[in-house]
Amino acid sequence: MRIPRYQTILFTVLLVASVGMGVALWQLRERAHQRLLSGQDSAPTQAPEVAPSEQATILLASDADGTLLAQAQSLPLPQDPGARARAVLGKLLDMYAAADAAHPVPGGASSIAQVFLLPAQDGYGRGSQSGASPGGRGSQSKDPMQMGPELAVVNLTGAFVASHPSGILTEMLTVTSICGTLHANLPRVTEVRFLVDGQPRATLAGHADLTRTYLATEVVPHP
User: Fold this and answer.
1) Comparing C-alpha atoms, which of 149, 152, 157 is closest to residue 188?
2) Whole-number percent of the chain with pLDDT over 70
3) Contacts of 219 (CB under 8 A, 6+ apart)
4) C-alpha dihedral, 219 to 71 to 108 to 220, nearest 10°
5) Rounded to whole angstroms, how far apart are CA atoms 159 and 161?
6) Is the dihedral of CA 104, 108, 111, 112 positive or negative?
7) In this predicted structure, which of 38-42, 159-163, 214-218 has the lowest mean pLDDT?
8) What angle do CA 145, 191, 161 make, to 5 degrees?
9) Is 207 helix (H, G, I), strand (E, B) or coil?
């Protein structure tokens, strides 16, 4: 039985198309395999370094009696002083955001945008009202023998301030516990100022003055 010519041509076309698709699929498979191998080669072979855990002192406020109580906490603390300051304040605000907090304040560690450390006699000098750039460095490399008192500039987020409970006592407890926690873990920090989203702000939630310089050395925890 003779096969019609058009069927022979159709079969030939289908065969060529099938072979071509097979070759194309094989090439795509090889390229995908090479990309996978390339991604594996470029992936880090070691986990990122984690700061070692150290003993930190957190000054926790209590709304019931208006006191600050020092509490020891073990947490990872970076060597960089600015990052170290942010870590301890993050822990403080995480504890305030807990369900059973004696001084409940929402927000947690993400409420601390940045912490800058500056010489107390320069920049924000004692009693100065000038601002600081949020793009500045958290700390400067100095000779330890020449390092003197430092001013910490704590840059809070606008979301934290917007959700903070209003009231002179609750606001002052937040401010003083931040100041005391900084001084307890970085003794050279003797003064603290506050920014909100990188800008000066009059009050925390209507009462606590954020335009002044706070003396961290005056914050004394309850025995």
Assistant:
1) 149
2) 76
3) 59, 68, 176, 177, 179, 180, 183
4) -10
5) 6
6) positive
7) 38-42
8) 135
9) coil
pTM over the 0.85 mark: no
Q: Give the DSSP H/E element, type plus range, for residue 93.
A: helix 81-96
Q: Is 70 exceeded by the pLDDT of residue 216?
A: yes
Q: Which two tokens stand for residue 197?
A: 């989203």
Residue 84 C-beta-side C-alpha neighbours within 13 Å: 23
> In whole angstroms, what is the distance from residue 134 CA to residue 113 CA?
9
Q: Is the Cα dihedral 70, 71, 72, 78 positive or negative?
A: negative
Segments of the chain assigned E as strands: 53-62, 67-76, 112-119, 150-156, 189-196, 214-215
Residue 223's pLDDT is what? 75
- Residue-range domain boundaries for the chain: 1-43, 53-218
pLDDT at position 12: 79
Say how many residues make up the chain.
223
* Amino acid letter, 53: S
Query: Among residues 104, 71, 62, which one has the least CA distance to residue 185?
Result: 71
Residue 189: which region, alpha, beta or left (left: phi > 0; alpha: psi -120 to 50)?
beta
Binning pLDDT at 50, 70 and 90, where does residue 80 land? Answer: very high
Report how far residue 55's alpha carbon sits from residue 73's, in angstroms, rounded to the nearest whole number: 6
Q: Are strands 214-215 and 189-196 parallel, antiparallel or unpaired?
A: antiparallel
Contact predicate 109/73, CB 8 Å: no
